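hey so i finally got around to running the thing on that chain from the lab meeting. sorry it took forever, my laptop kept dying and i had to restart like 3 times. anyway pasting the input first so we r on the same page abt which one it is
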Amino acid sequence: ALLSLLLVLMILPSPTSAGTAVNLFQITTDGTQQTSHFIYKDLTIYTNLSDIWGYNLDTGENFPVLEKDGQQFTTGLYRDLVMYENTDPSDLTTDIYMYNMRTGEDKLIAGGAGSQTSAVTNGKYVVYIDGGACGSVHAYNLKNDIDAVISPTGCHPLRISDDTAVWPYAGAGGTNIYGYDLNQGKPLDIVIEVNFQESPDIFRDKVVWLHYITGVLGDYNAIKMKDLKTDEEKIICESTTTTLQWPAVSNRYIVWSESSAQHVNGIKAADLKTGEVFEVQAQGPHQNSHTMPDIWRDTA
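ok and heres what got predicted. didnt touch it at all, straight out
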């Protein structure tokens, strides 16, 4: 049976003396799966079972974005550009497409044998993985249609902001965060530390990620952030009583999911201006332990 998943967003008004207020509301209500959501300004796109749908924050309208044969799975959103994977049921290969919501163009970016996955775009390049969850990292130039390998190794999830793409990759004894400056054509060693650095996200010069030792509940784990301009690194939240997951960052806030027991999960946030850490949604069985939040400015 399909698990009914509810896509939820929040508004984070400016903090008051009583702390940050949260306006929590539900945007999907039917009994099928809604997953893989991404937000840009007043638009959220998501995978609705096997097609791509959108939600307009201003009007409160849910609407179909792209419906076609095969399985579509959203991987990124930038302005009107929806990145998604399309799986052919006849051979189970996964190709990367970019759908332009303004023009209606549905463009094949990378296909053929094997799986191309995890595509993101900044409007100039599409960055993706050739090989599945891990493989070589490619940058496809949308202006001249030239596809180039920018790293021989990289893993899901890819994220991009401005001209910088970031991703994790496992090395000896753990996982580190790497990146690439598309403007300068320069590889970046973003976080090279002991243990595991995973699930990166980036907004402008700020990179956030999950740091953990074993991933077992009760072991140390933390949400960390690095400023690429200053190289300053700081701990946003650390815990030995809960499992932290999937941080996402905007100009003002970081959000992440947090679990204190199997099959329950909640959402926390931190205000980068004030340092306040606060609850967005209380833990419970309404969310599984791998909930992936996304954020744009003050809406997650």
